[in-house]
């Protein structure tokens, strides 16, 4: 499973570079919409074949988190699904990610048979509520996991993919939820008052 996941990430990185090189030509096609349409099977970007979107379904979701409506996008492979990834974005970002990295990642994983949900936690992107920092998004993560299980009831567990401060949020959340079986932590934020003070003294 870990090797398969790593292969998906490597392919996404390579295709993401090719997409950026052809940004002008394919800008209209690459813009995320709430209504999705499959790409033509023969489409190429920079000589690299596009993701096969006929292998999965992608849909917009609206679910509740303590009275606020939260927006997410689900990528679900066709057939039986046992694995899923919850993508938690970090900082002042929303579910698409910089350079559409979360769009590409979720679609590539779905092509590999792994479901995913990327969402805007409360106060960010298109979700309702007041802006909150990463120390207070545990409820958002819990609600998103519950929604994932509603969409894919037979999951064997969930891996949380977190970027920056969302990686820190995932780390502090995971131990309390037995449904979380793995973490992917990118550039976790580990700043503390003590380490910040040492940095000021040093620099």
Keywords, separated by commas or semicolons:
six-stranded mixed beta sheet, alpha/beta, two-stranded antiparallel sheet, 8 strands, globular, 203 residues
Record field, number of beta strands: 8
Shape: globular
> Strand order across the biggest sheet?
3-4-6-5-7-8
Average pLDDT confidence is 79
Rg from C-alpha positions?
17 Å
Q: Give the number of helices.
A: 6
Class by alpha and beta content: alpha/beta
Write the layout of secondary structure elements.
Blueprint: H1 2-21, H2 23-30, E1 44-45, E2 48-49, E3 56-65, E4 68-77, E5 83-88, H3 101-111, E6 115-119, H4 138-151, E7 157-163, H5 165-174, E8 180-186, H6 193-202
Helix pairs in contact: 1-3
Brief sketch in words of this structure:
With 203 residues, the protein is α/β, with parallel strands linked by helices. It has helices at residues 2-21, 23-30, 101-111, 138-151, 165-174, 193-202, and strands spanning 44-45, 48-49, 56-65, 68-77, 83-88, 115-119, 157-163, 180-186.
Structure in words:
With 203 residues, the chain is α/β, with parallel strands linked by helices. Helix content is 36%, strand content 24%. The chain is built from six helices and eight strands, in the order H-H-E-E-E-E-E-H-E-H-E-H-E-H. A six-stranded mixed β-sheet has the order 3-4-6-5-7-8. The longest helix has 20 residues. About 12% of the residues have low confidence.
């Amino acid at each position: 499973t870990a090797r398969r996941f790593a292969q998906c990430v490597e392919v996404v990185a390579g295709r993401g570079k090719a997409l950026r090189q052809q940004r002008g030509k394919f800008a209209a096609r690459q813009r995320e919409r709430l209504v999705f349409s499959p790409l033509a099977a023969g489409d190429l970007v920079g000589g690299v074949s596009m993701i096969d979107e006929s292998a999965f379904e992608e849909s917009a979701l609206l679910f509740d988190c303590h009275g606020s409506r939260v927006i997410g996008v689900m990528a679900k492979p066709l057939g039986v699904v046992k694995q899923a990834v919850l993508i938690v974005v970090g900082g002042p970002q929303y579910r698409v990610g910089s350079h559409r990295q979360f769009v590409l990642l979720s679609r590539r994983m779905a092509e590999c048979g792994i479901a995913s949900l990327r969402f805007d936690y409360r106060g960010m992107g298109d979700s309702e509520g007041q802006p909150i920092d990463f120390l207070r998004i545990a409820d958002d993560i819990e609600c998103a996991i519950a929604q994932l299980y509603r969409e894919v009831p037979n999951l064997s567990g969930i891996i949380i993919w977190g970027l920056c401060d969302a990686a820190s949020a995932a780390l502090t959340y995971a131990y309390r939820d037995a449904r979380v079986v793995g973490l992917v932590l990118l550039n976790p934020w580990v700043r503390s008052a003590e380490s910040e003070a040492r940095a000021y003294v040093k620099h």
